[in-house]
């Protein structure tokens, strides 16, 4: 039975959606081809009509994820510049974390360790997604002393992905929420505080003296 191009495209999209959900929950090793196809409501034999390998599936999933989320993460932020832009971007990303369940809509916390051992094809797909995100966002960032717009955005993405990963790694502990709050606070932090002048002096209580009889 021959299927139409529209049917094949829809099936391809179903596989990608199922793969993204499993990659997010289980990482690369936990999302087997069999589990992905079962989640998509398809037979395992049909997988190779769409992807040459599981690594090719991961590469395409990363491209689709980064493209879709670049639009989502940057939508409505063009009126902001500099630190305000970075803070709004970070808040939007970090707010994906559900503090009650430890879940997040981002695949990165589950996949980052896998990407360190991934094939060049997979790493190139992720790198391209990062390049496109940073390239679009850096237009909102004036140069700062010691950091170019590109460096500011790369550091912010690294902080966000890292904080989300650490929060997932400590999801059962109060520390998870503290990590996310700390990431936001660092982006909002102002100039260094002069510790000598920061804390107002608190007058010490005078010891009571006995009145002479």
TrEMBL record:
Q: Which organism is it from?
A: Corallococcus exercitus
Supply the Gene3D superfamilies for this chain.
Answer: Homeodomain-like (1.10.10.60), Tetracycline Repressor, domain 2 (1.10.357.10)
PROSITE patterns assigned to the protein according to its UniProt record, in alphabetical order: HTH_TETR_1, HTH_TETR_2
User: Which ranges carry the HTH tetR-type domain?
Assistant: 9-69
A Pfam short name: TetR_N
Q: Which PANTHER family match?
A: TRANSCRIPTIONAL REGULATORY PROTEIN
Q: Which residues form a coiled coil?
A: none
Q: What is this protein called?
A: TetR/AcrR family transcriptional regulator
Entry GO MF terms: DNA binding
Residue ranges: DNA binding:
32-51
Q: Which UniProt keywords apply?
A: DNA-binding, Transcription, Transcription regulation
